[in-house]
Amino acid sequence: MLQERRLNSRGEQYVVGPTGTPLTLRDLPPAETNRWVIRRKAEVVAAVRGGLISLEDALTKYRLTAEEFIAWQQAIDKWGMQGLRTTRIQSYRD
Predict the structure, then answer these.
(1) Closest by alpha carbon to 45, among 91, 79, 11, 12?
(2) Tens-digit pLDDT profile for residues 50-62
């Protein structure tokens, strides 16, 4: 489900982030992120879904596997942002 591309007042491309606020490339988590809280995971998923960053670029930038990213997407689709809680993922697995 790709979102429509939009430009903010500075001319930067953005998508609507997981909290409903605009999300630009500058707002994405830093490449060296080691602590993946719910919001950061959801921001990366929203950025890929909205076309702000390609899946390949996200995997490379954040040193993620495709399986890990897909798990994040599926957790959001099935349980919303709370599905991204690492302590809850095992409980949610079918």
Answers:
(1) 79
(2) 999 999 999 999 9
